[in-house]
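Forwarding the complex inputs:
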Amino acid sequence: MSTSATPATTQRPAQSGGARTLAVTSGKGGVGKTFVTANLAAALAARGERVLVLDADLGLANLDVVLNLHPKLTLHDVFTDKATLDQAILPAPGGFSVLLAGSGMVEYSRLTPEVRDRLLSIIDLVKPRFDWVLLDTGAGISDVVLFAVSLATDVMVVATPEPTSLTDAYATIKVLATQQGRRQVGLLVNQASRLGEGRMICGQLQQVLQRFVGQQPGQAFRLDLLGEVRNDATVRQAVLKRQLLIEHYPGSEAAQGIKALANRLLT
Amino acid sequence: MLPAVPLLDCRDTTPTALNTPATPPLIDARHLRLDAALQLLQQAGALLPEAEPYSTAWLQGVIDALCDLSSKDALTGLVNRRSFEMALSREVDRVARSGEPALLLVLDIDHFKAVNDTHGHAAGDQVIQAVARAISDVVRPMDTVARVGGEEFAIILPNCPPSFGLTVAERMREQVAELRLDVSPSQRIGVTISVGGAFAPQWVRSSSLLWMERADRQLYRAKAEGRNRTCLEAQMESLVSAEEKGMLFAATQLMDGE
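Prediction (whole assembly, two chains):
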């Protein structure tokens, strides 16, 4: 594996050929980030896209829990040279592929040059083979999360209408804008209690961002509302049964929200 | 796990359960060589059990006193490193389940080597004891204060809201800075500490090692920035000013008011 890459967290990889890379992150944990990521992957796959979800929440992720997968080989095995990348990329229900971190990855959840190089080369290797690489990152703003986000060309912040989630989403977006030089961040409002709540929250965040972040000259900052997922009873059902909402409750309002998000990303 | 069957001949006539024949004795406590253990306890000033020597209660008392002794730091009476590591692992597991915020502080006496070199090791010990007392005075009974190295201490603060973290750490630092120690009849000295801290990741599986590393990193930062200061790992809360929060929450109020 190549170790010549010297990534910097402030520098995004150039948009070369291959997959579009989208980092999914959140300020606060427990806002449904992994749930959204898995269902978005399935919705994109249903549209004929080749999708890989990379569990970039090293060691702390629960993508395996959400998808009810019991992987034998994981990113940890790739890191420790016990498996090849091809062996560790697994098919998931929903027609997409996953590369799971595995619980052993907790040792890697601090950002050493080795972890950086490995993750970077893994992304370079998978990009030509997929249309989308979704990076399911951790919550918060740890250096690993920021690095994982820096690997992607696009970033989507998942937030709920709850005040603490809103505050943390704002803080995350602020850090992405000021420390990573992002000019554009996407927002997905999850658990919206009514139609239009996403638009309202996005508007409010935009106002505060414009006042406190968008002041630097030549640093116009944009927050785009990528979608809104309604908080309906089917979400709880799907989560409890560890099923994909898109597959098992395709007609639900929440599933419609995910599909609209996929549409938005494909246009 | 401890075996349920008593392994010792306790000379205790109380039946362990009704209608159960007494279990045949496996060990006679009087055959154990306990001199070294008893001497150790005596020297450490530990209270020896009052029960009839070589009875179950007495032996249990000796063992408890030994456990207590082996979990404490001899100089300060604080929790020692071994015991601290156990407490830290327990806290990591607890936080992963409860989601409660927990803060780990690590602190180090500034320029301690100079104190030792200038005033001697007795003065150094005096400083360590005084700092230990000063820290213990400003924490809650539920907090674990440990001496984890020569002049290094660590404190686990369970259920500590993020907004209080800095206040608690600063209170410790100020308490220590106010100390005046008579290290000799003619010399009175003061010391300062540097404090680093990090909150446990809530709701997630993590390791105590990582938590310790994160707190240590902040301690290094406090040292590098000039000592006698507190550095806590950035929390979401500290990134958002009151003014920004006010504007954000206008949204929720607007929604509620609709």
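The two ends of chain A are 35 Å apart (CA to CA).
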